[in-house]
Amino acid sequence: MSNGLKLMAVSLFLLGLVVLYIGEAPSQGSSDPALSFDEYDELVSAPVPMISAVELAEYLMQQEHHYNLVDLRGMDAIYRIPTSETHSLGSFLDRKIPVNETIFLYSETDAQAVQLYLLLNIRGYFKVKVLAGGARAWTDQILRPNPADIEKSQLVHRQKLTGFFGGAFDQPGSRPELREIILEKQHKKHEGC
Amino acid sequence: MNLPLYPYEIISSSLNLLLGLAIGVGFGFVLESGGLGDARKLVGQFLLKDMAVFKVMFTAIITAMLGLFFLSWGGWINLQLLQVSDSYLAPQLVGGLILGAGFAIAGYCPGTTVVGMASGKIDALYCFVGLFIGSWLFSVSFTWIASFYRSTHLSESHLPDVLSIQTSTLVFLLILVAVAGFALSEKLESRHE
Questions:
Q1: DSSP letters along B70-115, please?
Q2: ipTM above 0.90, yes or no
Q3: Domain count of the fold of chain A
Q4: Model's pTM, two decimal places?
């Protein structure tokens, strides 16, 4: 064995001992992260990223993105936004999906969704948005919008959105039935070799 | 933590590709400098006369492994976001055998083919043409081999999980294997001198 190789072998062995001494990397798999008071203060005072019902509908309608749409209203909800999955706060955190995935959260209003947003933010998820106004806003703006609330230039586009998701414009004296629609969810694209 | 750069959206997709190109050129330069652009040297590996391929590749593996471990330990890289291909045991075993046979016959693997071609080797050029013919044959016959291609799927498997040991223990064990491998390589080479 040459001197150079002996030196490399000894260096590698010593590095190996350092690795053994260190043990597991602390940054990996931390499911219960701790925050300092300052960090907590900064987190709760920062604005929560929101997506409007119309923006979300346009995004889903494209059917070309990989995303997680999370319904936090429990199993009793009658209508669900197409491609959404029902979770509780705990069950979604247990899924351990990669921190760079796109996540949209909604509950009946905003409260639970914002709560989960904060929990995800602490864990390093940086592409999380909350549906502004929750499921109610989805119903009011997408499924049964009132034409009087929509700008004239947007009417055709909004009618298309509403029709796509199985809804209809709200007409005085009538409450049209919702059509059930099924959207195909895109799988995550494989990147790299 | 802000590594890897692309999944954290610190760099754009095109810059990511450019970085890949630059790293690829650098890797090719190192391979050529290590003599791996020469088929005779590569075939020497299969005849256990010249262990340069083993030494270069195992050094690269150990360097990358230690680099990733310490970067992860320091909290600079999120290993969860590194792309790891799914495991398909049987097709990967057969694919490995085909690649190994081609490597032994031609004296080049796909990477060193490009390196050899860049340094003007005619045999590497033939291999490069063969590489495309092989890829084309694979594409046109995919319908017939698709079920085998997707068989024995193990999803994304990591050695520490499969062996139920800590990552640091695996790193240490691989260092021991590398040191032993290097010593054995020297012995084999000295037998042919």
A1: HHHHTTSB-GGGS--PPEEHHHHHHHHHHHHHHHHHHS--HHHHHH
A2: no
A3: 1
A4: 0.74
